Amino acid sequence: MPFKRKDLLGLRDLTVEEIEHILETAFSLKEINTRSIKKVPTLRGKTVVHLFYEPSTRTRTSFDIAAKRLSADTYSITGSSSSMVKGETFLDTLKNLEAMSPDIFIIRHSSSGAPHRLADRTPISVVNAGDGMHEHPSQGLLDMMTILEKKRRIDGLTVLIVGDIAHSRVARSNILGLQKLGARVVACAPPTLLPVDLDLMGAEICPRIDDAIPHADVIMVLRLQKERMQQMLLPSLREYSIRYGINGRRLERARKDVIVMHPGPINRGVELSPEVADGPHSAILDQVSNGVAVRMAILYLLGQREMSRASATREETA
Ligand code: CP
User: Fold this and answer.
1) What percent of the chain has pLDDT over 90?
2) Domains in the chain, please, with CATH?
């Protein structure tokens, strides 16, 4: 099935078939990452530009590794290294980069909707690598891949999302994507950290973490995003940790085969204790490994579209 979209902006836009197609592609590409020579020529001659206006370790590195494993050339611009610090506007910067004929822009930005603004104004494919408090589709996809790998299904599972859901683009992409694939999503957080539109997204709320844990197949723990909090929304980190932190004692009430996930970076000892983060139920580093495969799949599918467009143009002009 060809992937017909120009951009990957969010999981809200994608059909079940498109999500499954990306995940199937990721599973088939994952094997490349275990070879001694981890490179295939699929995107040779393609150019990927990373535009990261917010910090990132996992997403930026894994998109870069993914592009290079598919033989694309990559270039990276960060907020502090771009001419925006000299006063150039976001759109002027992007128009200038567009004039250098890249094939895919990968953008992380603190403003919700920034990748959509870019995608509307450029013929280049745009991938959202996290926009404000809106979506982080590649994270949602790698989380779904990890659940499929560990549980063999998503349909019928209960996924408990714990923590700072209000500020989390990871939560939003997961809530939208997991429900499309048939999961039940339960949210548990202090009332100040629950988004107002949670019920519109179809998620249930369970106020007490200890009531929710025994029913969960997957516990997805989120980072407290202190950088996005406009005011103090918690009495103290210590109280948050006592009431909502996932630790070994709490996990004793969970199903024997529960998996614990976290998108990173972790505030160790706040939302997750080290014994759980590094323990037998943790799927955190599997998420990171699958991040490379999912991002290879995204670039491969968008790159294939570019290639079929280019060959159609060649046929038209022949
Ligand atoms: N999960 C995630 O987006 O991590 P980074 O901020 O390190 O990219």
Assistant:
1) 82
2) 16-136+288-317 (3.40.50.1370), 137-284 (3.40.50.1370)
